[in-house]
Amino acid sequence: MAGGGAGAAVLFQACGVPEHELFVESSNEIPEDLVSGLDNWYATICRQCSSTEGIVVRVMEGRAKKIEGNVDFPINEGAHSVRCDAGVQALYHPDRIAAPLVRVGERGSGRWEEISWTDAMERVALQLRNLSNANRAVMVTPPMRSYSGLVADRFMARFGGQYLRYEPLETTNVRRAVKQVFGQDRMPDFDLGNSSFVLSFGADFLNTWMSPVRYGRGYGRFRQGDRERGTMIHVDSRFSMTGANADEIVFIKPGQEGILALSIASVIIDEGLGNASAVSALTNGGRIDMSRFAPDRVASAVGVDAARIRDIAHQFAEHGTALAIGGGSAAAHTNGYFNMVAIYSLNYLVGSVGREGGVNFNPASPLKDIPTGASFSQWRQLVTRMRSREVGVLMVKGADPMYALPGSIGFREASFDVPFIFSFSNSLDDTTAMADLVLPEHNYLEDWDIVDPDPGPGYQSVGFQQPVVRPFFESRGQHLGTKGFADALMGIAGELELDLGLPSTFRELLQDGARTLFNLNRGSVRASDFRAFWNGALQRGGWWDTGARGGNRPTPPALPANVGQAPSFDGNGTFNLIPFASTSLMEGQTADLPWLQATPDPVSTATWRTWVEINIKVADDMDIREGDVVRITSGFGGPDVEPGEGVLALAYPHPGVPPDVVCVPLGQGRRGSGRYAKGRGGNIMSILSPGADRETGALAWASTRVRIEKTGDWVRLPKAENTNPDLATDEGQHIVKITPKDS
Amino acid sequence: MAELKQTQQRQWGMVIDLDKCTGCQACVVACQSENNIPINEEAHYNQRRAIQWIRVERYWEGEFPDIKARFMPVLCQHCDNAPCEPVCPVYATYHNTEGLNVQVYNRCVGTRFCANNCPYHARFFNFWEPAWPNSLKNQLNPDVTVRSRGIMEKCTFCVQRIARVKRKAKNEGETVNDGDRALSPACVNACPTETLFFGDFKDPNSTVAKMKDKETHGGRGYHLLEEIGTDTNVVYLKKVDKHAEAKEEVHA
Amino acid sequence: MLPGDFQPSRPTNKQLIKWGILSLVSLFFVAVVVGVLMFVISAWLGKPLSVFGYDEGPDQPIAFPHTRHVQELGLDCTFCHRNVETGAAATIPPVGLCMTCHAVAGDGLAEVEKLREVAAAGEAIDWVRVHRVPDFVRFNHSAHIIFFSEQDNILSSEVCAVCHGDVGSMVKVEQARYLKMADCVNCHRDNNAPTDCVTCHY
Fold first, then answer.
1. Of the candidates B100, B105, B143, which has its C-beta nearest C201's C-beta?
2. Do B25 and A741 touch (CB under 8 A)?
């Protein structure tokens, strides 16, 4: 490996004479990717965000240089998102943790000391062994549909502790509605590419929601494919990037999306435009009175003209294959679950379930072991348990609840009542900064895994993640450096003499999984012997079988009796606060990568800061200009954010925001982080009201009302807009040309 | 110019379908990653000196609630009549035999005349020595020169990829294939919606040549700032909006 | 004597000696400056002048004699520089390759003992670079080797001498050709190779 770093050094010295540049060795003893000038592309899986995308990584001289999409992989078909590309910056981040760290100062003081892995594992084992009751151990991870998820699941099950999965902007309501309407445990696939009409509610699916690259692939074909150009109507209470790309954007009062969907359904039912059996099933044979949702009755409540509702209903029912998608802020109200049930039920009315261009169910994974269970929404109970000192050890991996849980839940404060916190993480985040012990894990480009994509492509598919480079901190020896999460957890289980019922190493576990696929003898990789299969699957980045499709549920269940309830809001202001996942920083997971900090938001083009989008006319009335520092208060806060103090953000007035709404991106305002994100911007989650969905208990993160005040300060908003002067055009000439007809 | 065009063997170019662009920025970061572009810090944006070889412009249209945002990726148009070329006192920017508008870093003396003269604002000046923390330098692409302070830079259509593919084809006695992903610029490969197409306009069977032929004759094709006669090698396809019937073309 | 009429007075002998010394000293300085300039300019345009040993190659950590290996043992260039036909870099062989022979060969030689020490410690040899092109130049060995070996129908190892001179006869490797841009471009012209800037600069 000596050749790698030194060899690369030759090439990035713009001036000055590099030293030690001739450590480059020849190809007969070192791997071919270390030879100067030769590159190799290795297939693996991107783990930067929760959607599973196949990638290929260009490796030269032992260093990862560039990430591109894997053309073969069914989810993304060669394309990738902004987040994928920045994976190399996560790998080579200057603030990566290079050895296990133990806290030496006060908790959260940020003073650490390096210890050896042996010592660290012993300390963890000791803490776990000394618990008076096994259920005093709690583990928090993001939802992991992978073999490392299986190890975590098995570890907590055998140990007897509580295992919580955490995602900042909960999708519980969407998933529960999918279960209710379609009877599916997995998200279905939306076949945008073959659809002729898309009606979406709140979901920013081209940008950040669920599997944006897959939807983007479909969207390209939906617009200019082999078929007639599709039409898209987007219903939202904010101007999202997806809304910007719709043919029509319908602004709706926050939380009323379900009522609008039912109103559309009532028109379809009333005028006999829909599928008769679905109508009968949905209305429970006519026993559910849909007339109360007639456009004229609900128009003022939802804020959409009755005529327009009828028009949308007609368009939806009269296009060949229509698709209704809901999520995002529409699912994040106290009635979010009902909104989702109403929206997804629309697909049945036009017969779009289980057909080309519609909603296609994903089959169960061929790997039965991969955990699918989700247990969100138990944060309040956990905080109560922490406060009453019922939690002895808190284990965190890849989740950052201290950053993204509403401050009013008081998770961070309660964590002081937990005697021991340890975090598997390769960089500092808010939760890791509060840990007593940090176990640095490999970057995903250095680690193995087998991943079950969710949402899948409509057929069985499995992603193979392999190390494309040797661990960056390998040179620190086996006692320091990083380790794979699953390996480390299996090591801890070994210390505790806990039988996980799994093979002794993670690699063997993965090979067992691969053997299951090999024995199926179908799909994209088939081989005469297992070794060939294993290599083939790694080379292609996964295994999939286009023939193994999901089932169908031909008729929907009846709408729940209390569907159509109104949302409720909390907070001291008049503006509805709609937080949204940032295009590049998502919910903060990738906030420390400089490329992503510098990536302009598609709509506002803002970078590096936290901004608040506000309607340009309202801002005018309030005398707010772009760059004015405004204080956003809701009356809520946590121990760290005084309710009156609120969150500071730079105003970005633009014409697309509804007058009664303000939108703030997530991702900034971190207290524990590397150099690029630390102390930057504000964290809007800290002032959210702790409102929850009435049915599912999921966090209603779009149900806070806030007040906006000018502080009198002004800071230039760093943005891409106007970084270059306007293109000079002659009169009558246009930059973006638009044509009404599709040629 | 016309004579040169006749004798050219290749003419690299791009087709950008505005009807598909969602503004997702994947192309922007892919370009940063491939071409060793310095990190655009907050101060760089504020001083309007951020470097983005490809950028996505966003134009507002209308008033709430009838509001639209239009996205358009803008990069060096590799003009056949490039306004940047004749003003360079040291011949650091010129048109090569494959239709590329080339910037020769080691010749550039940093007069910035070319950037002044570029109607597309596609040229960027290095006001600072590029800086990365040491560990991030491991990512830098060894095929692309790191531009030092005082040098003008711009989109190259990822010429390092073209060179690599051509060399490989020559060594192995093969031809350069249209649509080869190893040949396509990083932005084209990244795009989730297949908005961008790259290829050789001289090859009548290439995807881009066929699209250009079809779309510029009564179709959706147009060149950016066509009226100034730069004769660009990037063809834009108009955004489709059936509500735009009343006004044939909307000023964005 | 009329006012304004200039009548130089004859200098005294003392003055003559002073001026003589002054002019000699200035002449000497001018000669030194010209000498230095000639040296620098020639090094800028081509190779340093052959004085004070500046044209010689650098001392290497291990005095590796190419003469012994190439002329006497008849090893082919590509035996050690293995990547030259396939990649951008010709590559320096790893210590392991040296040790395939020197584990047994060359007992008692001081330089071989040095090599064995390095090999035993598992380190790499910090060779001093002899040929260097600036970092904005993309030189690719394989393209040149393949072109000349096909054009002249010769072995790959015979192509090396075009730029590197007869390394086989050098005890200490030195730069044989200027390898300045003019040198590259002239050769490209002579061989009908592309002279487009982006052939090498991107």
1. B105
2. no
Angle between helix C141-151 and helix B159-171 axes, rounded to 10 deg: 30
C-alpha–C-alpha distance, residues A631 and A627, integer Å = 12
- Residues of C within 8 A of A61 (CB-CB) are none
Sign of CA dihedral A248, A253, A256, A260: negative
Question: C141, C150, C196, C197: which to substitute to probe chain B, counting the most B Cβ within 10 Å?
Answer: C197
Contacts 24+ apart (CB under 8 A), C113-122: C114/C61, C114/C62, C115/C62, C118/C62, C119/C95
Domain ranges of chain A: 114-169+377-441+482-496, 172-360, 575-714
The tens digit of pLDDT for each residue in A180-223 reads: 899 888 889 999 999 999 999 999 999 999 999 999 999 999 99
The CA-atom distances, in angstroms, between A81 and each of A232, A609, A704 are 22, 21, 30
Q: Which fold has domain A172-360?
A: Dimethylsulfoxide Reductase; domain 2 (3.40.228)
What does the block give as tokens for B233? 């090698």
CB contact under 8 A, C94 and A11: no
Strands A738-739 and B239-240: parallel
Q: Does A383 touch chain C (CB under 8 A)?
A: no
- What is the interface pTM, i.e. ipTM, of the complex? 0.91
Q: Is C113 exposed, middle or buried (0-12, 13-18, 19+ CB in 10 A)?
A: middle
- What's the Rg (C-alpha) of chain B? 19
Contact between C83 and A30 using a beta-carbon 8 Å cutoff: no
Q: For domain A575-714, give the CATH number.
A: 2.40.40.20
Residues in a beta bridge with A139:
A163, A395
Whether the CB-CB separation of A370 and A150 falls below 8 Å is answered with yes
Nearest by CB to residue A733, choosing from B41, B67, B227, is: B227
Highest mean pLDDT among A397-406, A671-680, A723-732, B108-117: B108-117
Answer yes or no: do A26 and C140 touch at CB < 8 A.
no
CA pair distance A73, B220, nearest whole angstrom: 32
- Nearest to residue A263, comparing CAs of A177, A329, A198, A349? A349
| Shortest Cα distance, chain B CAs vs residue A624, angstroms | 18
In whole angstroms, what is the distance from residue A647 CA to residue A632 CA? Answer: 5
Categorize the per-residue pLDDT at A26 as very low, low, confident or very high, splitting at 50, 70 and 90.
very low
pTM of the model: 0.88
The CA distances from residue B143 to A65, A100, A507, B36, C147, in Å, are 10, 36, 35, 10, 21
In a domain, residue B213? The reply is: yes
CA distance A424 to A438: 6
Check residue A46 and give its pLDDT.
Answer: 92
Length of chain A in terms of residues written: 743
Q: A464 pairs with which residues across the strands? A: A450
Nearest CA of chain A to the CA of C48: how many Å?
19
| Domain residue ranges in chain C | 15-54, 56-92+129-202, 94-126
Cα separations in angstroms, A22 against A4, A11, C63? 11, 12, 16
| SS3 at position A346 | helix
**A13 pLDDT above the threshold of 60:** no
Is the pLDDT at B7 greater than 70? The verdict is no
Residues in chain C: 202
Q: How far is C133 from C156, CA to CA, in rounded Å?
A: 22
Write out chain C residues lying below 8 Å of B101, CB-based: none
Q: Which among A51, A706, A83, A711 has a CA at the least distance from the CA of A406? A: A706
CATH number for region A114-169+377-441+482-496: 3.40.50.740
- Count of domains observed in chain B: 1
Residue B187 belongs to a domain: yes
Contact: C92, A30; criterion CB under 8 Å:
no
Q: What is the mean pLDDT of residues A407-427?
A: 87
